[in-house]
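re: that chain from earlier
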Amino acid sequence: MERDGLRGEVETALRRSPVVALLGMRQVGKSSLARDILARRRGPTHFFDLEDDRQLARLREPMAALDPLRGLVVLDEVQRLPDVFRSLRVLADRPGKPARFLVLGSASGDLLHQTAESLAGRIAYVRMGGFTVTEVGAERLETRWVRGGLPRSFLARGDDESCSWRRDYVTTLLERDLPQLGVRMPAATMRRFWSMLAHWHGQVWNGSQFGSAFGLSHTAVRRYLDVFCDAMLAEQLQPWHENLSKRQVRSPKVYLTDSGVLHSLLQVRNRDELLGNPRVGASWEGFLLQQVRDHLGALPEECFFWATHSGVELDLLVVRGKRRLGFEFKHTSQPAPTKSMRVAIDDLKLDRLVVVHAGADTFALGDGIEAVAAQRLLADVAPL
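^ sequence. v structure.
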């Protein structure tokens, strides 16, 4: 499947910066996108897969290996060779910029830390997620929700094949990839942690409560959560708070990044099982929250949730400049306005509040509140 928007974003970044980091979870399609960019490129190109020990060995002396190269150089799974960033700084500063470097990584925390120290002012970042509804089409929204956005899962010939692939994916991450990120924990224990995290999907993080259920201290479970966020398997949505006469929640919400992986960990195999699962509402919320952010073009630092200790809550608040957009996600075909929505509009001074629902129609719910069908999201909600 063509990913023209992402390809254009990467190519624009390469024209602007000598080094571009393409970040995304495992098997999201980074290598395929990079090879597509290479195939369309005029002039010399080079591709190094650092999961191949032979190619990794070629780059043990990065300066000697990379200095003669010209054109576009791709380094895949670059977190396996952290020493390369010091060399990239020197190579990026050469007169005339004889080479541009596209580095692909599956561990955002380490990469961001290393590049911030070594390549400040020389690197641009592009984040890559699974297939979006924009890419697959609104008519395949439910398939995208159930199977997730990882290419091999979404493009599988049937739900059984998709489910089997995701089970193998989870096992590979637990037994190989997470240990490479420094996780010193048995795979069975880490699977239990990940499964508990799936049941926590869409909830406000409470380290003490989670740690008590898992039998560990809140600091220990926080470290494990950071590992999953670093591997881009989970993410945290930060709370919005301002000077209001209300006690506001100040802990983040936690979501698994891919809805298909979430369903695999919840032992959900298909749409029918998902609709009967008690976590269906949380799954719908997390899935559409991602789609709205991608469609709007909202940056992570522009996205929040809002909640008070009295129970008022807004699933997604997007703040850009003086604009404030609010979103609620309801897995129902007949959404209704609530007191919580009206309080959010008044207290947060929202320009618009959109309730994204599972029905077929878009209609007004009241002053400043609009119900938008999920399948009409792309048409009825304009990007920022």
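The CA atoms of residues 276 and 288 lie 19 Å apart.
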